[in-house]
Amino acid sequence: MSSEATLQKNAGNSARNTALLGLILVSVAPSISVTTGFVFKAGILSVFVFVFTKIWMFGLPGFWHLKIEKQPFSWSPAKKGGWGMSLMLGVGMMFVVWLAYFLLGEQMLQPEALKSILDPVGLTVPWKLAAAIVFWVFINSVLEEYVFRWFITSKVEQFVDGKWRSTFVSSAIFTFHHSIALMLFLDPLGAFIASLGVFIGGSIFSWLYLEYRSIWVAWVAHACADVAIFAIAWDIVIGF
Predict the structure, then answer these.
(1) Residue 81 lies in domain
(2) Residue-level pLDDT at 9
(3) Which pairs with CB-CB distance under 8 Å and at least 24 residues apart come from 112-119?
(4) Structural domain tally of the chain?
């Protein structure tokens, strides 16, 4: 092997090791937040952990991309379009979520468990829950696309060949922390079905990102799905 080939191989291995470290550091943050808030029900501590992990999830990918990997800044513009496709998929997901709730909600959901999780942080109060929903739909879902679709999916691409394999691996990472929360206020069958739904949704979001290379396109479908889910949460906690 020539010295040039050796240098290229070493550079490739170094880049993959750097990507793996960044992937791990970012991937663990949402599970820590969910475990603190939902499993341990740590009250005000969970709020601080939630805020810290959001700052970590938002700040570390940008720092890693710009400072560690020395890559240029980008606003992830939608140069390839994809808005119509994302909206169509998002609206389809909304109807699937509502249909599942209509058909299976009473058999799977545990309303009191959900209320017991939300009450310590004040989210059983209508205006607080409404503010939280606005945050989740318009800020948190953008953050999740930035983290899970752009950063995590792009890192997974360095280890996994093929668009669909990258899609499914990044979606599995996306699903993990959601499943932790779902197991706490759904019965086992409901948690499995909902986790499968999250995995399918995450796969759709990841496919949209890999196809159109913009977090904003993927966010449209994500926001639609969140609206459907939080409408159900509102119905359970507050009622229409």
Answers:
(1) 3-237
(2) 58
(3) 113/184, 113/185, 114/185, 114/233, 114/236, 114/237, 115/236, 115/237, 116/41, 117/37, 117/38, 117/41, 117/184, 117/185, 118/237
(4) 1
